[in-house]
Each structure stands twice: as structure tokens, then as C-alpha cells.
Please model this.
Amino acid sequence: MHVDERAGVFWRWWTAGTTSMVGSAVGAVALPLTALTVLGNAAFPLRLVRKVRRCRRSGAPGPRR
Model:
């Protein structure tokens, strides 16, 4: 593999990682704002959204089907 080929691989990897991080950051802001807009200012649904986000970040398994 030539140096130019390795540089291309690196930039593809870097772009994919950066895109993923930006998407996660947008989702972290968009999900609560969407829930607030759709559900209104109700305390229980907003707490439920917060708990789901916290569980997903901790790596806890999702609901069983």
C-alpha cells in the first residue's frame, strides 16, 4: 500500500468518525427538544425520555422482544 493510499484510508476513517460524532451530538440536542415540543411540558414523559437516554448511554440492554 502506498503512502497516498494510506492517506485516503485515513481520511475516510476520520470523516466517518467525525460524521458519527456530529450525528450523536445533534441527536443529543434534538431528541429532548422534539420531546418537549411534542409532549409539552409534562414532567413524566420528559423524565421517561431522560431515563431512556441515560440507559442507552450506559450500554444497558434494550427491551426484550
